[in-house]
Amino acid sequence: MDSALMPAMAHVMAAAAPLLRHPDPQVAAGTERLFAAVVDIEATEAFDAVLREFGRAVVPVTTAPPSRWQRLRRGRRAIGSARDGGTGS
Predict the structure, then answer these.
(1) What gap in Å lies between CA 27 and CA 88, rounded to an integer?
(2) What is the pLDDT of residues 7-28, one digit of tens each?
(3) Confidence band for 81, pLDDT divided at 50, 70 and 90
(4) Cβ(34)–Cβ(17) under 8 Å?
(5) Are 46 and 39 in contact (CB under 8 A)?
(6) How confident is residue 89, by pLDDT bands cut at 50, 70 and 90?
(7) Are 62 and 16 in contact (CB under 8 A)?
(8) What is the 3-state secondary structure (H, E, C) of 48-77?
(9) CA-only gyration radius of the chain, Å
(10) What is the structure's pLDDT at 1?
(11) Rounded Cα distance, 89 and 77, in Å
(12) How many helices and strands, by DSSP H and E, does the chain display?
């Protein structure tokens, strides 16, 4: 691995390490596979695939649900669109 990447990868590993103990098994397994792929960084296609899989597992469980206000606004827009005949204006 390029010595310039070592500090950045150390930060990534330190930041992701708590996800190894995440209650969602997909997140924990995805993190393990990500760590294994980082070790074998020369296999870039495999790393890209593992990184996409990791993102699909982590993003849904780490993204905060919309606030009540956001949900209400979204509902109002849907009602307005239906009232306008679906034109959205």
Answers:
(1) 38
(2) 777 777 888 888 889 899 988 9
(3) low
(4) no
(5) no
(6) very low
(7) no
(8) HHHHHHHHHHHHHHHCCCCCHHHHHHHHHH
(9) 20
(10) 54
(11) 10
(12) 4, 0
pLDDT value at position 78?
Answer: 64
Identity of the residue numbered 6: M
Tokens 């695939």 locate to 49
Token readout for 65 is 């649900």
Given the structure tokens 């993003």, which residue do they identify?
59
pLDDT of residue 80: 61
CB atoms within 10 A of CB 27: 21
Tally of residues, the chain: 89
Question: What pLDDT is stored for residue 74 in this prediction?
Answer: 79
Question: Residue 50: which of 31, 22, 28, 25 has the closest Cα?
Answer: 31
- Residue 81 tokens read as 């669109």
Cα–Cα distance measured from residue 23 to residue 9, given in angstroms and rounded to the nearest whole number: 24
